[in-house]
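Q: Can I see a sequence and its folded structure?
A: Here is a first one.
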Amino acid sequence: MNYRSSDNSEIKTSGLPRKGIFLLISLSLFWGLAWPAMKISVSEIPPWTFRSYCIVLSGIGLLILAKINGFKLKLPLHKLKPLFVVALFSITGWHLFSAHGVLRMNAGRAAIIAFTMPLWANILSAFILNERITATRLISLGMGLGGLALLIWPELEAVGGAPLGAAFMLGAAISWATGTVLIKRTDWDTPTTVLTGWQLLLGGIPVVMGALYFEPSGASINVSARAILALTYIILFPMIYCHWAYFTLVRIFPAGIAAISTLAIPVVGVFSSALILNESVGISEVAALVLVVSALAISLFFGRQA
């Protein structure tokens, strides 16, 4: 499946490896830091309202950036239907399922379950995109999921006590994985910034509707400067920059390898939460970091050769 972009800087093959590595590192850092920032925000801002702000403002922000850079914002009409389908999974499904999941279980455990996404992306890419599940990819995936298992192992009893929350988070992971794979089925011929901006706005429609229904007074509450700063960070970096970076990675690498790269994010989340929120970090977190970094190295430096 040909997967072009009209942004020439995104398709120069000579710059792909270096660009991919930079995007991977920055994505893991900024998205990982989003978890403590999210905890700060939702402690004062109702979750549906919080997600509505994030999705709508980041979608508008991306389209403004695209316009400043001279890109046309108009999408061909025949591309709206496939983009809406992708957005239903990668934006709507992810945000709705994860909102319900976080409400019903500890946010840290919810994040760990959410990032089983690469497992489902690898399985789905084999069936939908006919990508080969190579030995290298299996080793990388196994090591990364092993690192996540080390993080979740001490929490298994707690997860067992919140099966509905865990089910919602698993649904969020599968929904995100489906969107990651489906976006590669179409030849968009559209800059990543434009494509991601419209994807956020289309996928955010049901989330905004949910906020208006479940939290009609959510936009009128008073919040602290700390919560506003956390929300601003999330909109600028995890939402605007990281959504662009993630879908750029999906274009650069096969869907399965791009998905494996996200395994570093919950590890960054664990350690940044320890620094910002004073959460404890033990030997299992350190061991998980080693496994996940090793998985990323195998995925980046050997996965493209497999």
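Q: Show me another, different protein.
A: A second, unrelated one:
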Amino acid sequence: MQLKYKLESEIDGEKNTIIETKYVDYIESTDGKFINIEFVDDKLMKCVLKASLDEIRVSYSNQNLNMIKNTYIRNQFKLSEKEVFELEVYLINVHIDSQIITFTYDFLQNKNIIVRNTASFIIKESK
């Protein structure tokens, strides 16, 4: 089995693909309510996803994102080793099945939406 990661952003009704990896091998396991996915993309960036129907934890490109459905969560993002900034993240929905894990979330500042993102982990049979 292989997967690819796709991140789409929507600003003012316009959608853009921000990241789309090639299909790569991955490791899948479970831990309580979470499905765990680990892979290294075609640019050698490590990704770790812990997904459940009401909570998402993702680590990608040296950034961490933690979300709980229908809850505002403050997350820190690294600009450099010493510089960070904070944004609120609001998880709108999560879909999990055997072929895709997808979730939609907003980045907000002072409860105002800056951008809406949809992340998809698309799974296919290996040849």
